[in-house]
Fold each of these.
Amino acid sequence: MNPFEHLPRVEISLDNLVHNLGVIRSRLGAGQSVMAVVKDCAYGCGARVVARTLEEEGVDFFAVARADEAKDLRAGAIRSPILVLGECSADEALWAAANDVRLSVNDAADVDALGALGAHVRVHVNIDTGMRRMGILAAEARAVAAQLLSYPGIEVEALYSHFASADVPKTRTVQAQYRRFVRAQEAFGKAGIKPRLIHVANTAAIARFPLTAAHYVRPGIALYGCSPNPSQDFGLPLRPIASLKAHVIKLKKVPKGSPVSYGGRYVARCTTYIATIPLGYAHGVPRLLTNKGHVLIGGKRYRIAGTVTMDYIMVDAGPKPHMAVGDEAVVMGLQGDDCIHPDEVARQCKTIAYEILCCLSKRIDRYYLRGGKVVVHESGANY
């Protein structure tokens, strides 16, 4: 047996990615476009390949969290404009100015720092309408607009905001936040700044609040096939793009009463076989799946037996196992007629799919599939 054939791997369905993009586009108004959020390794799915695929499908704007992520996309031959949502250094800002990368104004101090560069910088001004994380308050809009006008090198290309509770059923916060945003937009207009772009809607807002006045929407989790809240139905027929797989590497017969894994939290009820799979929390299997998560083997579900360890999980294969060493084991993804969805994993762990996907280890090989064939293979980091 070649041990490298059984290493953990992440598989990314580019077909499902394209499908999800189509679902999002079906919710847009006339003239609206998609600004794809590919921050943090495209939510663990691999930013370069995801962005390249989306760009080939006509997506013409991307958003990332940090300047180094924008640099990585440019190194990966992504040509479209990129918005950095977070902070950056002076050197990073100069690089952005020279590489068609937009920067966010999140504070009045950002304006002075960018103005001092003496370079032509395109910026998107973040209006904090209720998130209380980043951005200027709507009440500061007039003062910040005047400040921006004092620096001819700064071009205000866009205004944007972010909804804090768009996923909450029957929320009124979206309407309230949007009213604050419009007031800030009007303040900028009165000062003589009329940006050509507006973007405000995240995935939940796209699904529930059609804000057609905005030029771009900013989907994140929907692109990757998951819901903003895994316990709710947002009416989007999405398909998960990420799978986490390995193979059975050992089948061990154990007597009745045998404790399994750390702490003996699972005890064999009869003489049985325990199957070992080389996936653990170091790869992205949450430890909270201990004794309740599932694994697909041969199209059948098996509950994780005992504590999830750093590099392995075990399942009880039964006294007459219908599996063998070398069989594929799926902790997340499709096998046969069944699918362990990232949203299902998130529900079991009382979290959201964002966290599940972002915890997929970068040291795992990623295989990108199109039409059932591997089109890109990225080796995991060696450390």
Amino acid sequence: MYYCFDNDMRKIIILGGGNSAEREVSLVTAQTIKENLELRDIKVEVLDPADYSDWVTLLKHLHNESPEMIFIGLHGAAGEDGRLQGMLEICGLPFTGSGSRASALAMDKNAALCLATDSDISVAPRQLLFKEEQTDIEEIIRKVSLPLVVKPNSSGSSVGIRIVDKQSDLMEAISAAWELENYVLCEQFIAGRELTVTILDGKALPVVEIKPLDGWYDYTNKYIHGKTEYICPAELTQEETLMVQKQAELIFRKLGCQVYGRVDFRYDGNRFCFLEVNTLPGMTSLSLTPMAAKAADIQLPDLLLKIIELSKNKKG
């Protein structure tokens, strides 16, 4: 599959880096996007929001450059949570991926889980904690049960996530997550397989199974070669594959997401348990969305061009 673009088009500006905890991964994503678009003779430039004194200065620069498209290669806070998307919308600047509302909803893990429940998609028992409120450890154990996962409510790349097996370790894990943000999610750990489904133009690509060789799919296992085995397409029955793809498409649509994204699940052999939606999936050599696209016979340069094409025509 090959997408051809007019080489006389104005350049594509890629945003990468930023100031979130996922800055380093974002820089790699941005560079990968640049290199692969250049393979199709597209004029590109990478800008790092951290190099600008504030968002207004960056937006003025983007407006003056008048790019064909702004490819958002940011991850985490500010780049992925709808704030940047909202400012670009107000300025009338074209950008890749979902709009501000869907980005904000997807970044808020608890909000996305509530929408999944309303759509009859299974989710794990959980409790949302606010830093300024009193924390009752015994109540959390009663509602969620051990082992459980402690995670910041609005972050990615497994930053700040801990799996807790003992009650005595729970408060320390919660406090560590509070160092990153004020809302923390305590979610029951679902034993089983970790699966992810990339959505492109509303349709699911082949399912990827993630199998860390040691421990769980933490930051190290995500971004260091040789730490994790990836199986794509995942070894599921046709019925299982269609079921998880259908659920991924449904929650993607319910959140109002557009163009592309990735939906993560745990599978215990009986049910697919929805975890979260990533509206700006990574594009590194170990990223899951390029793997799924390759299994669908879409090479990375063509995937990026397709994302640009779809972003030009998205609604709202």
Amino acid sequence: MKKVSQPFRTQRSNQLGFTIVEAMIALVITAMASSAILLGIQSSIQTTNHSLEQTIACGMAQQLIDEIMAVRYSENSDAPHETKPGPEINEASTGTRELFDDVDDFNGYSSRPPTDRFGIPLGIGDGVGWKRNPNFYASPNFFDNWEQRVSVCYVSPSDATTPLAADQTSDYRMVKVTILHHDPINGVRELIKLNRVVAYVPPIQ
């Protein structure tokens, strides 16, 4: 005569089943939200890394541009218009930029990993031909996949953005410094390119 409890158990069972469904839905929603958060964090980290690389590349390119701007326009002031820009044999023999003494010496220069003018990898040298204290080295292998490139060409006097043909010269040269990153997965990525135009001013007689 106490079968009235049966409907109670059925109702209780139905309530439990509904709670489990709700829990599963909540887990799915939580998983989706977690994935979105993780993707956002990953994107933020990538953006931060790219910003860091851009900042370092900008400083690296500016340093190399300043080095080039500090040398003479040409090797011979009496014949400043070289038709084959590039370092002479003795200047290139060291494998460094230490003997580069005019702008066209830098044409075609590239180094991977990047180095200072003495051939010491960046992040290790002290800028004057020696290595810094090991405690102040950059992270090991940080610059291994970075590359610095330089090109020098004559440009039109009327439009400094227009390169001249290889057999043409002018009193204006454009120096291009490019910093690249070689990614084994995504390939080569240009981090920054800086251009500067230098002009030849004849010596005062």
Amino acid sequence: MSRQPRVVFVSTHPMTPDRFQRGQLRWLAERGYDITVLTAPGDDLDRLSVREGVSVCPIPMARTIRPADDLVALLRVVLALRRLRPDVVVAGTAKGSLLGVFGARAAGVPIVVYHLRGLRLETTQGGLRVLLTVLEAATAHTADRVWCNAPSLRARYLADRFASPADCVVLGSGTSNGVRAERFTVEPGQRQAERARWGIPADAFVIGFVGRFAADKGFEELWNAYLTLPDSWLLLVGDWDDTDPVPAAVADALRAHPSVVVTGMLADPASAYAAMDVFAFPSRREGFPNAPLEAAAAHLPVVGARVTGTVDAVVDGVTGSLVPPRDALSLASAIQRYRDDPDLRRRHGEAGHARVWAEFRPEVVWRAIDAELARLLADQHLPAPDPAAPRAGRPTGWVVRATARVDRWSRRLSHRWGPAPERPPGTP
């Protein structure tokens, strides 16, 4: 009897599938895949299971390198995959990719995919860069396939010889999950309402940013550029990232400036784009950033740094402007150009909106993932997705008993000698 192919998505923290696979998992399940998400436990995972209607497998994973804990986590991943018996494992995020790819190979999974969403080593130096390079190469060579979520990321990956061209692909035009452009439509009166909400004058020129407040996001360049743009406001949507801190002097100046609004994390930042005139994105490295696409969906021109990932999100001279990375003067000059030319601002905003609708709607991305999965399954003569087929049965026996023993053992070790549990990003 035919059955649905089982696909397990692995990531370090449930925030990743909760945010970057929203709607995708349910769509794939309805298409005829048996979907399981394997990641660390948390409220995000519980919400995801209910919202997407998929199975979950919680396994504690540390986001930072902890050799003893990582070995225990790897063993648990292997046993879990032996129990689940997936046809495909798709592993993403830094730690999740390591544990997922090596665990899948050790468990004998037929198809192992590494979903690459960015290269942290691009902005690191010294011993850490060497370590990250070795781990990246090992992960890529262990996987059967590497999915890069941006064309420029694939080009960089191939240039560094981490993978061969045949095994390294971009699905569609890129991105992890696309953008629902309709969420960012600016309704009549919304611009004034959002500005009033944050205490911004109705006639002000507003430069916006949405994302992590981190050094890698180019916050120092953003601040220095802003200082050369008098009579402008800066609207920052997000929260401070302690793992990659902004220089203290810059952070303090931003908090204290009377024309800088820091909103903190918003449950839904879509409405905040309505208050902006131009979107600034001086990030120093990316995979395929969502925020510039969201800004484009809201009819905003985007000024970004010419770095991996951002060059795919912004079409220079069409949907925005690209400037040299770490160059505050060029960033300020491009923003000033949009301030001085409202017609250019409108044209680039409309072109960006049209591009998001044409290339980056979620359904476009989901169909590309479906086609790639179906192709990989067919190559291995494994079942094709079928909504009418039954889901594969869950095995029992020694694997289940062994997993339970490892669970008890790892909990005892963590309780006696382990460090304090990590808090999810953004928690105090």
